[in-house]
Each structure stands twice: as structure tokens, then as C-alpha cells.
Amino acid sequence: MEVKKIVILVYKLTGGGAERVASLWANGFAERGYDITIITTTGRNEDSTYNLSSSVKHMVIELPISSRIIKGILNRIGIWKLYFSHKLRKVLHEITPDLCIGVLGDFALQAYKCTRDLNCKIINTEHNAYDRPEFVRCRPDIMKMKFHTNKKFDRVTVLTEADTKVPGVPKENMIVLPNPLTFEPMKNIPHKEKIILATGRLDVWEVKGFDNLIRAWGRIAKQYPEWKLMIAGTGSVKSKEYLVRLTEEGQVEDSVLFIGFCNNIIDYYKKASIFVLSSRYEGFGMALTEAMSQGCACIACDFNGRQREIIQNDTQGIICSNDNYIELSDAIKRMISDGKYRESCRAFAIERSKYYSIDKTIDRWEHIFQTL
Q: pLDDT by residue (tens digit) across 219-237?
């Protein structure tokens, strides 16, 4: 199928990884000459965290009401969804896209309902793993989308090969599309400081495994007094207090720094010698590919084979079990103590990260177009 006009539907262009991915796709498509419109439910481009190319059209469909309280009430009673469907149908019939790409939520389903009388293909993009640990709950409507509603669409993209092997997934229209790389891979590795970096929201510390990371560091920190563990991310006072208490219990409060939200996270990737993805559960690991691209020697806890798809072997980094702080501690110790191995990992990590470049991601999209 020849695809010229593409519409991407996403809630917003602030905050999370999926929203960042949507902006990268939009800009990448525009670079290739596609006619791109991105539709959000809030915020103009100037209010967005992730900027769009001037070639990308940005439309906002939102209730013409300023009060958040009233908007919340209308959303709960279903008025918002009816309003959005009505407006979306009108917009899509004006644009007449060849393809609609839904990002998060039920955008793909809305597009499917609104384009039944148009010659328009619909792709839903999944941004979380199809299987999860027991402590990570998944809402019934999301499970219905993943295992049933997704059968309606022309294609459904998933982040890893591991997702295609989960029992019950609708494999017939499923295709693997890993997330694109946010930053250009380094050409030359700069001077690195004795920093171990981790990133993620503190409120989901159990998912991100920050408790395990702090305990792992506590086992070896005294052997490496010049090294610091930095955790980038925001969260509630309660969450931060809990993690700080763990550093105190492990007597590493002086070597663990909570640096908050960082607009300039790339600067920390450039400075850090080591990056650790300590998650018990991770659908992909954008932070991991970002860190690899900036010359960090990386350690990742693997969730059912997903992070092993990124770090394929020990030349590119170290893979650990996803809930074993002793194993994680040993990996950090190896990466600190073996300078030659650390330097080698950096070089191979940069090379591996190129697989996730936006150019190669758009190539993968164009392959999907050929299968429609």
C-alpha cells in the first residue's frame, strides 16, 4: 500500500516515553516527506515537552471548557468520549489519511470507528509488555484491548520479540517495532566521571527496582569511596523518604544522590561511567538505549528476555536477573573494578545503539507499510 498521509493520535506531548516516541515518529516521517498530522487531546506545540518539526501539523481536540473539575465530571460520565469521537470523525474526514497510528489508550479504536467509510488503515502501537509481574496490575480494559480489541486493526506493533511469544496474543497482525533512539550516538566518548546513573519515577520504585539497586550498592560502596550512585527522577515525599531510609540503613547516604527530574538528562549520560537499569519489570528500556548511545557501560536487569534483546551479549553490557540484588551488586563491582572491560563495553554499546536510530525506525515503518 502507498502511504502518503499519516495521522498519529496521542493524548499529549509531555511526560512519558510513549509521548516522546510519538514525537520522534512524527518528525522522522516528516523528514522522509510524508504528510503528517499529530492529534492530541491537550496542549499546543509550544506547551509540549517534546517539540515537533515545523513540517508536522499539530491539532488539539479538547472540550471548550477551562474548568478542570467540570472536565473531570464530563469525562467520568462519558460526555468527553462522545465529544472527542464527533470531532475526530470530522477531522479525519477532512484530512482523509491513508493511515492512522494510535499511541496509548483506545485511540486506534476511535480511529477505526471514525474511518469505516474511508480507505484508511489503522495501526495500534503497544508500549507496554504483554506479560507483567503479579505486583504490576493491569486494568481490565487494557487487557481487553491487548488480547481482543487489537484483532480489529490492520497491524499492532509490539516492542519486543518476547511479546509475540506470550500465550493468547493475537499474532496474526502483530509486528515487532522497538522504540527509536532519542539521541544521536556519540562519535567520541568524552571523559567520564565515577558516577553510576539510574533513572525513573521514584513513586514506582518497586517497578524500577531502586530498593534493590540501593541494597546492591550498599554491599560494595565502601570498596569504592570515590564513586557515587545518582538516581534521576521525581516522586512523592513519601517515596523519596523511603528510599533515603534505605540508604541510611545501608550506610550509603553520603554516596547516593537523588537529583530529581532532569531536563538535561543527556548531560548526565555523558558524564556517567556506568548506567544501571534495575527494573523488576520493563516493557523495553528507552533509558537503556539512551545511555548506551552516550557511551555508558550498561547493566540491565532482564524481564523475560526483553532487555536481553537490547544487550545481546556480554561485550555490549551485563544482563542480570530482575530481582536479585546480590547478582546486581556483583555486576556493578565487575564494571567498576575492570576498567578495560568497562571501556570495551562503552564502545560496543554505542555501536549497538545505532540499531535503534530514528532512520532505521522509519525504515521499519516503511516495511510495515509494504505489508498493509
A: 999 999 999 999 999 999 9
The stretch 57-66 carries a mean pLDDT of 80
Among 88, 91, 103, smallest CA distance to 24 is for 103
Closest C-alpha among 91, 93, 111 to residue 102 = 111
In sequence order, the 6+-apart residues with CB closer than 8 A to the CB of 281 are 129, 132, 133, 136, 207, 303, 322
The C-alpha cell at 349 is 554499546
Closest alpha carbon to 30 in 9, 12, 5: 5
365 by DSSP, 3-state: which? helix
Nearest to residue 126, comparing CAs of 138, 114, 113?
138
Cα(174)–Cα(195) distance, integer angstroms: 40
- Measured CA distances, 332 to 44, 107, 347, 353, 358 (Å): 43, 41, 18, 21, 30
pLDDT band, very low/low/confident/very high, at 161 (cuts 50, 70, 90): very high
- Return d(Cα 202, Cα 83) in angstroms, integer: 35
Contact 116, 93 (CB under 8 A): no
Average pLDDT of 260-285? 94
Name residue, grid cell 499492532: 156
Q: Are 50 and 28 in contact (CB under 8 A)?
A: no
User: Rounded mean pLDDT of 259-277?
Assistant: 93
Mean pLDDT to the nearest integer, 317-341: 96
Cell of 258: 537523588
Q: How far apart, in whole angstroms, are the C-alpha atoms of residue 298 and residue 317? A: 5
What does each C-alpha distance from 97 to 8, 35, 122, 246 come to in angstroms? 10, 9, 10, 53
| pLDDT in the model for residue 251 | 96
Residue 163 clears pLDDT 90, i.e. is over it: yes
Q: pLDDT per residue over 119-151, tens digit each?
A: 999 999 999 999 988 888 888 888 898 999 999
Q: What is the 3-state secondary structure (H, E, C) of 221-288?
A: HHHCCCCEEEEECCCCHHHHHHHHHHHHHCCCCCCEEEEECCCCHHHHHHHEEEEEECCCCCCCCHHH
Cα–Cα distance between 28 and 367 in angstroms, integer? 15
Strands annotated E in 80-205: 99-103, 121-125, 155-158, 174-176, 193-199
